[in-house]
Amino acid sequence: MPEGPEIRIAADKIEKAICPYPATEIFFAFDHLKPFEADLTGCRITGVETRGKAMLTHFDNGLSVYSHNQLYGKWMIRKAHDLPDTNRQLRFAIHNAKKSALLYSASDIQILSEPEIEAHPFLSKLGPDVLSSKLQPEQLQASLKAKKHYRRRLATLYLDQHFLAGIGNYLRSEILFIARLHPQRRPMDCTGDQLLALAEASISTAYQSYKYRGITNDLDLANKLRAKGDRYRDYRYWVFGRDQKPCYICSTPIVKERVSNRRIYYCPQCQPV
Question: Which of 51, 53, 91, 172 is catalytic?
């Protein structure tokens, strides 16, 4: 499933393609959304907002399209009405005079007014967006200390979108490694300095992934590995997907475990229990 950085990157591309011109045609695959095609055609898109892994495409008539990629959703930007040859099913499309923004395979698409956005059963319960410019480390540190989070395992807490929106499997593993905290630790097991370091790592790691095409590894190290001929997937991460490969810091083999049927990776030397 795409995580917060990937959704924000997609939103940036959509904004660049469709905000300059009014929509000349809107397409929805689902029958219950068909009546809104006429309502949105001719409107301008005022912005594409992300909240964690969800996206809100705002139109200037006060309506917004809520979409969630879930496991299989994928956005594509093409020349206007130039549909790709694919087995995926087109679920939502915005066409203008120059470009088309196409959402394939996603099943969670809704039309919302501004009041409906704030009352939405998923959006209204989300924690702060990890990529929000308003989110400060001290705010996240305080949330980690909160009674409802204090006794939870970090491996579980860091997949809870009610705690922090936009974190998924790879960011969870990378954040905990950078903070040097074992996945089975709880906030109550950590010092104040460790929780602040975890909060800082949460924000900086997500932002680096957004800015540098998903790379959460040390950037200098990633560049050296790339120059040496390593593949993107081999230099992208500190620990994620590197089961039994040596830790870049201490050479200890990386461990892979499953928590709630989701894989997580860590270094037992750098992240002691």
Answer: 53
